[in-house]
Every structure is written in structure tokens, then in C-alpha cells.
Amino acid sequence: MPVVRIEYEKSVSEEEIRALAEHMCPVAAEASERPLEEQSVYARPNYISVGAALIELYVDSGPLAIPGGDKEKMLAVFEKGIKEFREKTGFSTPITVSIIEMNWKVKVGI
Predict the structure, then answer these.
(1) Considering the domain 3-101 in this protein, what is its CATH number?
(2) pLDDT 10s per residue in the chain (110 long)?
(3) pTM summary value
(4) HEC states along the chain?
(5) Please, what sign has the CA dihedral across residues 82, 101, 108, 29?
(6) Rounded Cα gap, residues 83 and 91, in angstroms
(7) CA-CA distance, 47 to 49, in Å (whole number)?
């Protein structure tokens, strides 16, 4: 179950970020080979940033949600999804993507 976090500069519209977040949910499912119901995407504006990209997309994932442990393959799926989003919407703001493998234990619905 990867968690996708989108951090963005306030110069990018909230509507564009909402559309990007909605598009990234099924992309995360494809990239992790996990069900769509397990995906979470969060977005928040940066109130103060120095030297940050306009949009940064972080994928926090446990090792089992990175198929074959191949972060490059997972990154390629996100890259493809972002390119599809750009073609569909005309969105042109650069996006930095980071795949972060985390050693965590999660229990949902406590």
C-alpha cells in the first residue's frame, strides 16, 4: 500500500493538483500491483520553501508494494502516468518524483 504525497508551490492551482491527485491513484495501483482500494493520495501546498521544485510527488512504500523490489520499474510507471496526465490535460508544470522504500508496520481500521 504505497502512500502518494504531493507537495506543491502555491503558484500551482488547487484544481490542477486535485486532478493530478485523482489521476495518480490508479497509477499507484498499477505501479504497486495492489488494489485501487489500497491507494491513498494526499496533497498539500508548501507555505514556505527554498529551492524546492514546483511540484514534488513522494511515493512512500513498504518493500512488498514495490514489485520485485524494483524502484526503477515503479518509477517508470509513475513517469508514464504523468505523461498520460500531461497529454490528457495540457498540464506543463515539471514534477519531481521520489520513490521512498520504508520499513513500516501498518494496521488499518483500528
Answers:
(1) 3.30.429.10
(2) 789 999 999 999 999 999 999 999 999 999 999 999 989 999 999 999 898 899 999 999 988 889 999 999 999 999 999 999 999 999 999 999 999 999 888 788 89
(3) 0.89
(4) CCEEEEEEECCCCHHHHHHHHHHHHHHHHHHHCCCHHHCEEEEEEECCCCCCCCEEEEEEECHHHCHHHCHHHHHHHHHHHHHHHHHHHCCCCCEEEEEEECCCCCCCCC
(5) positive
(6) 9
(7) 7
C-alpha grid cell, residue 71:
524502484
Question: How far apart are alpha carbons 69 and 53 in whole angstroms?
Answer: 27
Among all chains, which residue has been given the C-alpha cell 507537495?
7
Question: 33: which 3 cell numbers?
Answer: 500491483
The three cell numbers of residue 11 are 503558484
Q: What pairs with residue 18 in β-bridges?
A: none
Q: Is 104 exposed, middle or buried (0-12, 13-18, 19+ CB in 10 A)?
A: exposed
